[in-house]
Amino acid sequence: MRIALLGDIGLFGRNTVADGSYQKRMARAKESLEGFDYVIGNLETPLTNATRVVGGKSAYIKGAPEDVEILRWLGVTHVSLANNHMFDYRERGLVETIDVLESSGIGWYGANGCSTVLEGADGTVALHGYCCYSTNGKGLECGDTCVNVLDPRKMESDLDSDAATGRYPILSCHWGQEHVHYPNYDHVKLSRRILSNREALIHGHHPHVIQGMEKVGEALVAYSLGNFCFDDVYTDKSKEPLIRLSQDNKETFVLEIEIDGSSLVEHSILPLSFVDDCYSVDERIGQRLNAWSDLLEVPEDEYNVTRAKELSDYLLSRKKLRDFEWYLKRMNIESVRMIAGSRRNAKRYSSLFSSFI
Predict the structure, then answer these.
(1) Composition of the chain by helix, strand, coil, percent to 5
(2) What number of helices (H) and strands (E) belong to the chain?
(3) Quick one: which of 87, 259, 294, 309 could link to 1 by a disulfide (CB 3.0–4.6 Å)?
(4) What is the spatial distance between Cα 189 and Cα 296, in angstroms, rounded to a whole number?
């Protein structure tokens, strides 16, 4: 069974049917996805006509229901909905997204407590999706009309259930810090613990840049695949984008894997860079991926020093873009709700992780 795993898929801005340019811009990406039994990605945007937002966030993104055609055109067969934007437009946004996907024949998982299973002549794969409190998402719960929360004990339970039924588990984890090439070390320790004696694959999302990969026994972890397709993020507070895509945000890789029975028998990467308004293969990405992966092997203290430096540089670059008007526009109840929500999520994150790792 041949499977292609994609990074963050943001169907908004220029990545829409209405823009009219996606076929030209994504032609090389579409070509690279032909021939796989399944193509799986993280759908970062709800596909909905809803207009009422959930509140307490810095930005809200969505696509229109007709933008599902882009997924169909690319050959995407399944998407994880476990991310921090899938609940931007409340329950209606999530429900409409699921309806649109099902009407288009695209499978989904990572919401409403759901996983899914892929059947093939040479094996069976279980797909699970989880969104971490570290992403400050909304609607992270376990139950109906919600985004599946990343709970280490639930992950272990899912893996053990798959092992008992002969399924190979592929876990989509939405976690970590945006725009930093090094994963949160809590997530490194989590991955190493739950995979130390289990076969599985974890592919990560949310940082919007590539992060390293490592083998844990017979398991494989790709901490972040970067953006498969995204765009600048705007809010109503400024004419300038809240997030303007950097070149790092325009680099990704397709993780190509082959499953036989209940084992991963082969994996490779296809490095893609979005330059001159279209995708192209860029082998230099593989070299940088190797460097980020190598750092995962150093002692934790040394690793955290390097990661802290990159995070500090990024936060400083963001701070330089803020002036008095920027702060003035954020002196409102929405900002208070955002801060309160962030603190609640930090407590929930600590509760789940402190006793586990």
Answers:
(1) 35, 25, 40
(2) 10, 16
(3) 259
(4) 11
Report the distance separating Cα 40 and Cα 38, nearest Å.
6
HSE on the CB side for 92, CA within 13 Å?
8
CA 107-113-115 angle, to 5 degrees, is 40
Distance CA 251, CA 228 (A): 8
3 state DSSP class of 172:
strand
Maximum CA extent, the chain: 61
**pLDDT 10s digits, 177-211:** 999 999 999 999 999 999 999 999 999 999 999 99
Token digits of residue 92: 């209606």
**Integer Cα distance of 52 and 243 in angstroms:** 22
* Whole-angstrom distance, CA of residue 18 vs CA of residue 13: 9
Fold designation for 2-353: Purple Acid Phosphatase; chain A, domain 2 (3.60.21)
Strand-pairing partners, residue 240, are: none
Q: What are the angstrom distances between the C-alpha of 199 and each of 6, 105, 125, 195?
A: 20, 29, 12, 7
User: What pLDDT, in 10s, does the model give residues 221-252?
Assistant: 999 999 999 999 988 777 778 888 999 999 99
Nearest by Cα to 25 from 221, 220, 353, 273: 273
Residue 242, number of CB atoms within 10 A of its CB = 14
Answering whether pTM is above 0.85, one says: yes
Ordered by start, the domain boundaries in the chain are 2-353
User: Tokens for 346?
Assistant: 């930090």
State how beta strands 219-222 and 201-205 pair: parallel
SS3 2: strand
If one counts every other C-beta atom within 10 angstroms of the C-beta of residue 21, the result is 12
Q: Is 217 helix (H, G, I), strand (E, B) or coil?
A: coil
Interior angle at CA 87, CA 325 and CA 96, nearest 5: 125
19 Cβ neighbours under 8 A, 6+ residues apart: 13
Judge contact between 30 and 75, C-beta under 8 A. yes
Interatomic CA distance for residues 349 and 357, integer angstroms: 12
